Amino acid sequence: MVQIIKIPQRKIITKSVQPQVQPQVPVEYKIVSEPNYSSNGEKLIIAKDINQTTITLDSTKNFKVTVKVLTSVSVIPDLGKIDEEWDELQLDWGACVQFQFVEGNWYILSSDGLKMS
């Protein structure tokens, strides 16, 4: 004897997949060719293709940054002083200086030979 069994229809359940949001990767570098620039979380700032520029070190977005200049640059801190002594640092073509923000001041960690004048 043949027995017919009703087989239920197969249901396909799909799970909606939310698009993956990629975490914001910190900007590794910024090339500055404008008269005024504030650091914005990058590790390296290269200033070039402009006669003179001013770079403001922003302690709310950076705690460590290297500045390489291929022009004349004034570096000013947003808070405190540079090495607890200077309100501004003048860099000439070819200079490279690494800064770190510690307890209210920006400090020079290394440089390729700052000249005191």
Q: Features of this protein?
A:
117 residues, mainly beta, 5-stranded mixed β-sheet, 0% helix, 39% strand, elongated
Structure description:
With 117 residues, the chain is mostly beta strands. It has a single domain (29-111), classed as Jelly Rolls (Sandwich). It has strands spanning 29-32, 36-38, 44-47, 52-57, 64-69, 72-77, 89-91, 96-102, 105-111. The protein has a 5-stranded mixed sheet, with no helix packed on it. It has a 4-stranded mixed sheet with strand order 2-4-6-7, with no helix packed on it.
The oligomeric state of the chains shown is: single chain
Distance between the termini: 109 Å
Q: What sort of overall outline do the alpha carbons produce when their principal axes are compared?
A: elongated
The CATH class label is Mainly Beta
In short:
The protein has strands spanning 29-32, 36-38, 44-47, 52-57, 64-69, 72-77, 89-91, 96-102, 105-111.
